[in-house]
Amino acid sequence: MGKKQSGRQNKATGKPTPVPINPQAVFRAAVCYEYTACIIRVHTNAIFVQMSRSNVGADVPTVFPQAVTSAFATELYLKCFILLEKKTHPRGHNLCELFGEVSAAGQKRIRELYDHLYATNPILKEMKTFMCSHMPAAQFDFDNLLQDASRVFERFRYFYELAQGEPFADPEVIRVATRYAILELRPAWHPLAMCLRPQPTSPTR
Fold first, then answer.
1. What would the DSSP string read from start to end of the chain?
2. What percent of the chain has pLDDT over 90?
3. What is 96-155 written as a DSSP string?
4. Phi and psi based region of residue 181 (left: phi greater than 0; alpha: psi -120 to 50; beta: remaining)
5. Residue 62 phi/psi, 5° resolution?
6. How far apart are CA 50 and CA 72, in angstroms?
7. How far apart are CA 81 and CA 27, in angstroms?
8. Residue 202: its pLDDT value, please?
9. pTM for the complete prediction?
10. Cβ atoms within 10 Å of 124's Cβ, excluding its own
11. For residues 18 and 6, what is the distance between their CA atoms, to the nearest angstrom?
12. Beta partners for residue 69, in sequence order
């Protein structure tokens, strides 16, 4: 099981004593942040609808908080997956770097689940068709999305500091695909994610 430094001092060495990180606890934390991201998305969508009906252009105040929360949930799911595979708890927030620590088989499965979601979820299919009529289809490529979302948690918490045009994306579908991959490894954890909106059942291997 992974180790993390606690605030308690080892009397013999004077250094912080490592404490075990429970992967189930990491998963529960990820679910909490994903649930929060979903709540914010409901408000974001409502604001977009209101703006489109009134034909008023304005900043949507929930866009960045939604993406930051979603990116953090994705980070925690990736860390949970790595913890299950390697028994070590990785550090850092960069999603590309964390995904790089996942085994080749784990990466393949997350990619498969990502493609499955776009292929079978009618809402995602409709959204992708609409968005592809306004932007390059490459925006939905797994690696491009991961790259654009990679530093969202680090950078977009302070979006007022950013230069215009900095890469930005909500890793929502990667987040869900990673959760599915974890639940394939730990099906007993399904009740921990019951608070989330229903999602299509992941395909069998």
1. -EEEEEEEEPTTT-SEEEEEEPHHHHHHHHHHHHHHHHHHHHHHHHHHHHHHHHT-----TTHHHHHHHHHHHHHHHHHHHHHHHHS-------HHHHHHHS-HHHHHHHHHHHHHHHHH-HHHHHHHHHHHTTS-GGGGSHHHHHHHHTTHHHHGGGGGGPPTT------HHHHHHHHHHHHHH-GGGGGGGTTSPP-PPPPP-
2. 53
3. HHHHHHS-HHHHHHHHHHHHHHHHH-HHHHHHHHHHHTTS-GGGGSHHHHHHHHTTHHHH
4. alpha
5. -95, -5
6. 28
7. 9
8. 45
9. 0.82
10. 17
11. 6
12. none
Kindly give the interhelix angle for 23-54 and 63-86, rounded to the nearest 10 degrees: 160
The amino acid sitting at 55 is N
What the block records as the tokens of 57 is 């252009």
Phi first, then psi: give them for residue 203, nearest 5 degrees: -70, 155
- Residue positions counted in the chain: 205
Q: Is the pLDDT of residue 203 over 50?
A: no
Q: Could you tell me which residues come within 8 angstroms of residue 51 by beta carbon, excluding any fewer than 6 positions away?
A: 57, 58, 60
Long-range contacts at 81-86 (CB < 8 A, ≥ 24 apart):
81/106, 81/110, 81/178, 81/181, 81/182, 81/185, 83/1, 83/2, 83/21, 83/23, 83/26, 84/23, 84/182, 84/185, 84/186
Both tokens of 144, joined, read 């491009």
Place of tokens 């075990």: 20
How does residue 143 score in pLDDT terms, banded at 50, 70 and 90? very high
Q: Which residue from 62, 63, 93, 66 is spatially nearest to 78, judged by alpha carbons? A: 93
